Structure prediction request, 296 residues.
Amino acid sequence: MKLWGIDLGGTKIEGVILDSETKEVLYRERIPTEGAKGYPHVLNQVQKLVNILQDTSGLSPEKIGIGTPGSTDPSSGLLKNCNSVHLNGQPVHADLQKILGIPVNMANDANCFALAETQMGCVPDTAPDAQVVFGVIMGSGVGGGLVVNGQIINGANGIGGEWGHNFLHKSGGPCYCGKTGCVETVIAGPHLERYYYEQSGKKLGLADIIQNRSSDPVAEQTYNRLIQYYGQAISTIINMIDPDVIVIGGGVGNIDALYTEGLESVKRHIFNTECHTKILKPKLGDSAGVFGAAYL
Ligand SMILES: [Zn+2]
Prediction:
């Protein structure tokens, strides 16, 4: 079977046709989103990309999976919690089905990440028997997605997996979501950089902060803050869902120490004496969004 997927991002729209048996990428294209030209233009760009894929492949989709930032509210059908502002409050799902004339399955990008790693990323390589997979995104924000038996769990509110806006510690301060001390405000990259700046008066990127920690006491303090709160935040996922696998994606997720000292910190905080959860590095990189969309 051929799987069609579209990753609708803030700056680019990417499309792929996958072979579901061989997991081979048959065709792949990307075009700019041009969100500044408005919502109807973004819809037209999606249609344009589907047309390009049809022309180059000679194939036609019977249905299509589309990954977006934010999530579709199950009761209103409108997109919400989306950092691409031109999509918020719009009936993106219904409009895309109308414009493309085929059934569309939509999910947010963190869910697509979790699904892609489950179907064709690190999970089949390392934990092929896993039934419950939690995909974590730790980058400029913190998000996640839950996959059970190969299916995304969207939830009654369409916010399944959104652990980034659980309360973690008041020192994180106000969050864009309107609450205070969310996981995101403590361990997302920009917030760790802000913490370092507040303590040191110096502006430094997170990678440099981590690298400087042996010679810079504030960098060491920032690193310890990440390790401690990473363990605490991940332990809430394990205590609640106890997944077989957690995949750690996003820029902050690239920090190797999360798999050593970070893992020890997780073990200190979970409600068990041992931790059998496989905590894995993702395999698919930036491609996870569009591959996950195809698997919708
Ligand atoms: Zn929040």
